[in-house]
Amino acid sequence: MTSNAKKLNECWTDIYFHLHYPHTEKISHQVIRILQLVEKKEEIGVSEVATYLQISHNTASEHVKRMVEKNLLIKERDSQDERRVLLHLTEIGKCVLHRNTSLDEEKLEQVMDQLADKEREIVEQAFRILSERAKTCL
User: Fold this and answer.
1) Rg for the chain (alpha carbons), in Å?
2) pLDDT at position 137, please?
3) Are the C-beta atoms of residues 78 and 85 closer than 8 Å to each other?
């Protein structure tokens, strides 16, 4: 890892460590990764989950089945191809994902309020640029 990437990564982990929501659910990292995949990509089915996590289709299917039982995901037939089943987040799934991957907005607001207007603008612009580039590089 280049020194710039290493420094940025250290900053990111510091930010997340200090500003994340308290974790209240007992939930596996694997479940969070599946919820993120369903949120960030369109038309996700069990096959895409298996490919993304590099696990067998049967294992992915079992994960999804448990997540449906916990009301984190719903399954829906693809309107274009009835043979295909697509996954979608439930409202509970959206909340669980948000609490386990996002920064606590109140804590973040407190930090942002401490910044000068120019600093706040720089931070917002930097995160916007990183987000845009991240979406196009993978």
Assistant:
1) 18
2) 82
3) yes
Its pTM stands at 0.87
Q: What single letter denotes the amino acid at residue 89?
A: L
Residue position matching structure tokens 């009835």: 82
Instruction: List beta partners, residue 65.
Output: none
In angstroms, rounded to a whole number, what is the distance separating the alpha carbons of residues 51 and 113?
42
**DSSP of 120-138, one letter per residue?**
HHHHHHHHHHHHHHHHHH-
Q: Tell me whether strands 85-89 and 73-77 are parallel, antiparallel or unpaired.
A: antiparallel
- What domains appear along the chain, each with residue ranges and CATH number? 1-20+103-138 (no CATH), 23-102 (1.10.10.10)
Q: What is the DSSP letter of 83?
A: T
- Residue 25 confidence class, pLDDT cut points 50, 70, 90: confident
Determine the pLDDT at residue 1: 61
Alpha helices in the chain (DSSP H): 3-19, 29-40, 46-53, 57-69, 91-101, 105-113, 117-137
